[in-house]
UniProtKB/TrEMBL annotation:
InterPro entries: SDHAF3/Sdh7
Keywords noted in UniProt: Chaperone, Mitochondrion, Transit peptide
GO biological-process terms attached to the record: mitochondrial respiratory chain complex II assembly; succinate metabolic process
Role of this protein: Plays an essential role in the assembly of succinate dehydrogenase (SDH), an enzyme complex (also referred to as respiratory complex II) that is a component of both the tricarboxylic acid (TCA) cycle and the mitochondrial electron transport chain, and which couples the oxidation of succinate to fumarate with the reduction of ubiquinone (coenzyme Q) to ubiquinol. Promotes maturation of the iron-sulfur protein subunit of the SDH catalytic dimer, protecting it from the deleterious effects of oxidants. May act together with SDHAF1.
PANTHER family named in the record: DC11 ACN9 HOMOLOG, SUCCINATE DEHYDROGENASE ASSEMBLY FACTOR 3, MITOCHONDRIAL
Quaternary structure and interacting proteins, as annotated: Interacts with the iron-sulfur protein subunit within the SDH catalytic dimer.
GO cellular component: mitochondrial intermembrane space; mitochondrial matrix
Mitochondrion as UniProt keyword: yes
Chief localization: mitochondrion
Gene source species: Seriola lalandi dorsalis
Pfam families per the UniProt record, alphabetical: Complex1_LYR_2
Name by which UniProt lists this protein: Succinate dehydrogenase assembly factor 3
Intracellular or extracellular location(s): Mitochondrion matrix
């Protein structure tokens, strides 16, 4: 893939994920947006092998989130379920740093008083 086509593909995936995050509860959106921005920035200078894996995983995330957003259409956000279980096999492929990031993300997304305690307008 030519460099300009690759950049376009990465940018398109990045933007699509951020658009899908608009359908998440506002605190999860803030958390998700920050995580996506950090991860895409962190992988700008990754090796081609890492980029291939990175793009595959984020494409799967985008597809899963898109399905969940469509499935939740018409329901209250509080009753919608977002996310997916990670298999032991998938977890065993993670590097130690990734396990740490995942753990911190899990803690932040499940605690009752999240760091991103944002109120939507009019509520």
């Amino acid at each position: 893939m030519a460099a300009s086509a690759h950049v376009s593909t990465v940018r398109s995936l990045y933007k699509r994920i951020l658009v899908l995050h608009r359908f998440l509860p506002i605190d999860l959106r803030a958390l998700g947006d920050q995580y996506v921005k950090d991860e895409f920035r962190r992988h700008k200078s990754a090796s081609s092998e890492e980029v291939k894996s990175f793009m595959t995983e984020w494409q799967l995330y985008k597809d899963t989130l898109q399905t969940q957003v469509l499935d939740s259409a018409g329901r209250q956000l509080s009753s919608a379920k977002f996310g997916a279980e990670l298999s032991e096999r998938k977890l065993s492929d993670f590097q130690e740093e990734q396990i740490g990031q995942l753990y911190e993300l899990m803690l932040e997304s499940t605690k009752p008083n999240r760091q991103f305690d944002i109120q939507e307008d009019g509520k």
